[in-house]
Specification:
The chain has 2 domains: about 5-320, Metallo-dependent phosphatases (Purple Acid Phosphatase, chain A, domain 2, 4-Layer Sandwich); about 335-530, Alpha-Beta Complex (5'-nucleotidase,  domain 2). Helices cover about 30% and strands about 25% of the residues. The strands form 7 sheets. It has a 7-stranded mixed beta sheet. It is globular, with a radius of gyration of 23 Å. Mean pLDDT is about 95; it is low at about 15-20.
């Protein structure tokens, strides 16, 4: 389905035309975040946990204490208006707060901020259904995800709702939701959680709410902007508040990824606003919807607000953050190495091309197990969650880059399956998928214009210092992280065809920290190991 996306100016004119002579207008303010990824503390410009010194110097952003203040300020400004606060998923995974508290700290701070509803993200399943159930039970507001069949899940059955109806200002606001259908490849939901098509699920839930007489319906999703624009074409959806793709939409910033809101045209010409607010607590979105008496959106405006250093921290939340941070700060503040320059680990590069962080991690993995006969290293770009700035490198920064507690996994694999792995990794570059292959011990050239599945042009492998073409029939020693080795991010060929697999090596963050320590000062680099041709 190809959605028709309109510019902000065109959309505003069209919505005005839709307004007609509607009476009894109803205005709804939606404050929203997505993909906080356990950035409980403030973040640096590299999206990693900010040092106390940099934070005091006004060089940091976000964090739940500032977010609490900004949400409270917005509520005060809008006193007497109709306001709801929504989270579009992925509170889990991304910092030592998650590693240490397994979601319970996130639940505490979400309750303190006062959300009205949350959509499940794919990373909410990272520790399995049991830990997710404990998180949901700790929340003081409902969690929704309509694209799941939880009838076979003892842990989650009855905890997550298909749809919600929020009573706001005397009106009923329907909330439908969906989570990415490839979550079993991206996370660890287990066999009893069944994922269904996102668009079909939303359509069915919209129809159910419409039958109940609910005429104002917001889709709160965790599927990524491309799928959000498809969901926006579902008749009956009035707005989409999304996450997953970490898209920075703005009405005012020329460096944005797209307009806030991005307007999508349904088949009958109805315009539907789609919004996201980047990630990591750096921005708060504010969407303003005006409905006519029949529940049609006649105006949609708003913007994302930077949660910047000018926003004071809520003192109670800040004190609690400091209390919870105490047990982990000593270890994570330990300097393990020094970087001669910033090490770029941004998702925009590491999910699309060779990046310095990808080279660092892949080389560290290969270095650790080369003496075991391993020749090739694979690291999924989506497993790299932050950059590291130049200068002293702390253990906390390394863990922020590699927060998933993955272990080193080694195995043997025939060349034909190595090639298939590369094709998988290159199959969804346009979508910013995390499966993009960062490598070591191997070079490859690919064509972005070719069809997925036939994009690899040339592959060579380091054979004792000589670059030799990949042999489809030869068996190679391969190292990856255990998530990829067991089929994560679409690497099913690793799971199906690996021989002598061992998935329980040292933690990936330890491997990288040790490698950095052995190469002080570390010089970030790219060397053309991944190249493209038209």
């Amino acid at each position: 389905m190809l959605a028709r996306i309109l510019t902000t100016t065109t959309a505003a004119l069209a919505l005005t035309a839709q307004a007609g002579l509607a009476q009894e207008e109803f205005t709804l303010h939606i404050l929203h975040i997505n993909d906080l990824h356990s950035r409980i503390q403030p973040i640096s410009r590299f999206n990693s946990t900010c040092s106390a010194e940099d934070d005091a110097a006004g060089e940091c952003f976000g964090g739940v204490a500032r977010l609490k203040t900004l949400v409270d300020q917005k509520r005060a400004e809008l006193e007497g208006e109709n306001v709801i606060v929504l989270d579009a998923g992925d509170q889990f995974q991304g910092s030592l707060f998650f590693t240490t508290y397994e979601g319970m700290a996130a639940a505490e701070f979400m309750n303190a901020i006062g959300f009205d509803a949350m959509a499940l993200g794919n990373h909410e399943f990272n520790l399995g259904p049991g830990k997710l159930a404990a998180f949901v039970e700790a929340l003081e507001f409902p969690v929704v995800s309509g694209s799941l069949d939880l009838s076979q899940s003892e842990e989650l059955g009855g905890l997550v709702q298909d749809t919600l109806v929020l009573e706001v200002g005397g009106e009923r606001i329907g909330i439908v939701s969906a989570v990415a259908s490839d979550t079993p490849e991206l996370s660890s939901p287990g066999p009893d959680v069944i994922f269904t098509d996102e668009v079909d699920a939303v359509a069915a839930d919209v129809a159910a709410l419409t039958e109940q007489g609910v005429t104002r319906i917001v889709a709160l999703t965790h599927v990524g902007l491309p799928t959000d624009t498809e969901i926006a074409t579902v008749p009956g959806v009035d707005a989409v508040v999304g996450g997953h793709s970490h898209t920075y939409l703005s009405a005012s910033d020329p460096d944005r990824d797209g307009a806030y809101p991005t307007m999508v045209s349904q088949e009958d010409g109805t315009l539907v606003p789609v919004v996201q607010a980047y990630s990591y607590s750096k921005y708060l979105g504010h969407l303003v919807l005006t409905f006519d008496a029949e529940g049609n959106v006649i105006d949609a405006t708003g913007d994302t607000t930077l949660v910047g250093p000018d926003i004071p921290k809520d003192p109670e939340v800040e004190a609690r953050v400091a209390e919870l941070a105490g047990p982990i700060e000593e270890r994570m503040g330990e300097v393990v190495a020094e970087a001669a320059a910033p090490i770029d680990g941004a998702r925009e590069t590491c999910r699309a091309m060779e990046c310095p962080m990808g080279n660092l991690v892949a080389e560290a993995m290969l270095d650790r197990v080369r003496d075991q006969g391993i020749q090739i290293a694979f690291q999924n770009g989506g497993g790299l969650r932050a950059s590291i700035d130049g200068g002293p490198v702390t253990m906390g920064e390394v863990v922020t880059v590699l927060p998933f507690q993955n272990t080193l996994a080694t195995f043997q694999l025939k060349g034909e399956h190595v090639l298939a792995a590369l094709e998988n990794g290159l199959s969804q570059v346009e979508e910013g998928a995390g499966r993009f292959p960062q490598v070591a011990g191997m070079k490859y050239t690919w064509s972005p214009s070719a069809e997925p599945g036939s994009r690899v042009v040339e592959v060579t492998v380091d054979e004792g210092g000589e670059w030799v073409p990949l042999d489809p029939e030869k068996t190679y020693g391969v190292v990856s992280n255990n998530f990829m080795r067991t089929g994560g991010d679409g690497y099913a060929m690793f799971d199906a065809h690996a021989e002598n697999a061992y998935d329980f090596g040292p933690g990936l963050e330890i491997v990288v920290a040790d490698y950095l320590a052995e190469n002080v000062p570390y010089e970030p680099f790219t060397d053309g190991r991944i190249s493209t041709v038209e």
